[in-house]
Task: inverse folding
């Protein structure tokens, strides 16, 4: 018998072991839900899968009685738009800040202390400021996401820029490159896959800020809907919404990972 | 061409190099050997412009060596010398792009075609034509150093600095690389400075061998004295014909510049 640290599962077993906790959780939920509903058929805490199915049908496949919209898809669209815009703005600003503070010591001397302080401000604490300044519309929600994750991306990119071996910068200079050529041809291309990594890591925080902003002031959106139906204890809506958000987060992450492998094959080959 | 006059290098209190006096003519192939930490790489970095001189003078064509790397001095490091995000061909072509005064160094149209032709020719010369579409991470160590050398040469430097370029390679591949470097040195009439920790390599390759070592020791203050050049020997395995060839080339170069 090999030591435990040397025992590795076969690919088949690995898949089964990976699926096991999910199956167990679903089973556990089914039993618990059934037990509670047997006691009190109008219990709202653990709705059965049939009830959840009905709720999905109502939200996603039938137009709302009040507005005639398909609420589920409306919510998804507006949430993804906000998240996308926020992340896009944060990546652009974060990349520029990180690149220039990482590559140019003079810029770094002036911008790095400020960046460190700004990154310590809890973004949610300034959400009221954003509402006051930008109003309750889209802008304040996008701004919260952007402000929330820009410092993280900027500092990550700054560190990645400094990690690029100085030999490469020296080499480029011995080939006659000036500063802007080094930035455009040596640093920037090598930072793109690292930017994708930074975005993937910051998406979790992005969702957090999105849902927080929607919970406080919105008229549609996934976070708004969850916090709205909470008043009626509508777990049959909340649970599929949470599952949907999780799925979206998973798919976006997988898409970014695939995109990175396609666009930057050299980054994923290891070695130097 | 290169001259050092009472050159010193200190890091804080630590003296690394002291009392270096030397003259190097165009076309020489100097190998620098010595124990680790003896300052041979530091000397190379001073020639490169990434390390400032502490005192004394280091002159290139009669003027102090510039304080930053430039296209007149090519470099090949032991590793990280090539751009990992460019294919072999792009790596070599990049040198042409960097040589132009432009914002991004990107090449277009006829300039791009010319650079491509030139880069393909050079890859042929160093034996990398078959690998032109690969990324550096897909190459073996020896191929990667061939690429680094090809790239350095496309900058058309007069001086080629090699910082333990073959230190990480297998012995068999090192012999191939020696042939390559000697061939390119003659063909491009380079002045080569090569740091190596392998004395045999130093003896075999160069026309001139420098040994860096400390001549003074203070057991109470190991940092008080630095290394200097203890041996400055003419070496080499060149036959008379080649030698006279180089001699003639040098004489012509001298009259051309005079």
Result:
């Amino acid at each position: 018998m090999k030591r435990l640290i040397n025992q590795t599962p076969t690919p088949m077993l690995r898949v089964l072991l990976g699926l096991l906790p999910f199956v167990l959780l679903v089973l556990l939920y089914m039993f618990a839900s059934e037990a509670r509903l047997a006691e009190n058929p109008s219990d709202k805490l653990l709705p059965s899968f049939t009830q959840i199915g009905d709720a999905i049908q109502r939200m996603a496949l039938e137009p709302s009685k009040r507005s005639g919209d398909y609420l589920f898809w409306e919510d998804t669209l507006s949430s993804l738009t906000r998240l996308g815009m926020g992340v896009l703005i944060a990546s652009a600003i974060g990349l520029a800040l990180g690149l220039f503070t990482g590559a140019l010591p003079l810029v770094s001397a002036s911008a790095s202390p400020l960046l460190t302080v700004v990154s310590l401000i809890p973004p949610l604490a300034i959400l009221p400021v954003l509402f006051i300044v930008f109003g309750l519309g889209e802008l304040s929600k996008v701004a919260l996401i952007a402000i929330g994750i820009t410092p993280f991306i900027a500092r990550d990119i700054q560190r990645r820029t400094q990690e690029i071996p100085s030999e490469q910068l020296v080499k480029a200079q011995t080939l006659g490159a000036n500063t802007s050529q080094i930035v455009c041809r040596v640093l920037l291309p090598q930072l793109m896959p690292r930017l994708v990594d930074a975005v993937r890591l910051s998406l979790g925080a992005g969702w957090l800020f999105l849902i927080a902003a929607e919970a406080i002031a919105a008229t549609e959106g996934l976070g708004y809907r969850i916090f709205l139906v909470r008043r009626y204890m509508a777990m049959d809506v909340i649970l599929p919404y949470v599952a949907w958000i999780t799925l979206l987060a998973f798919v976006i992450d997988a898409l970014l990972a695939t995109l990175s492998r396609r666009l930057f094959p050299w980054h994923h080959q290891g070695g130097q | 061409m290169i001259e050092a006059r009472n050159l010193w290098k200190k890091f804080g209190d630590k003296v690394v190099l002291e009392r270096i006096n030397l003259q190097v003519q165009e076309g020489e192939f100097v190998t620098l050997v010595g124990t680790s930490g003896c300052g041979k790489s530091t000397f190379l970095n001073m020639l490169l412009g990434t390390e400032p001189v502490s005192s004394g003078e280091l002159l290139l064509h009669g003027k102090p060596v510039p304080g930053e790397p430039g296209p007149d001095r090519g470099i090949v490091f032991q590793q990280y010398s090539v751009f990992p995000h460019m294919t072999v061909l792009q790596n070599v072509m990049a040198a042409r792009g960097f040589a132009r005064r432009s914002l991004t160094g990107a090449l277009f149209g006829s300039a791009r075609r010319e650079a491509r032709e030139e880069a393909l020719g050079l890859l042929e010369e160093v034996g990398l034509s078959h690998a032109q579409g690969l990324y550096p991470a897909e190459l073996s160590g020896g191929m990667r150093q061939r690429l680094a050398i090809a790239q350095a040469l496309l900058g058309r430097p007069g001086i080629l600095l090699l910082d333990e370029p073959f230190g990480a390679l297998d012995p068999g591949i090192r012999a191939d690389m020696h042939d390559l470097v000697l061939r390119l040195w003659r063909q491009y009439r380079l002045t080569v400075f090569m740091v190596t920790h392998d004395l045999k390599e130093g003896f075999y390759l160069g026309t001139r061998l420098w040994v860096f070592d400390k001549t003074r020791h203070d057991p109470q203050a190991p940092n008080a004295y630095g290394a200097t050049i203890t041996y400055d020997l003419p070496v080499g395995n060149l036959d008379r014909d080649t030698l006279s060839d180089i001699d003639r080339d040098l004489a012509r170069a001298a009259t051309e510049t005079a």
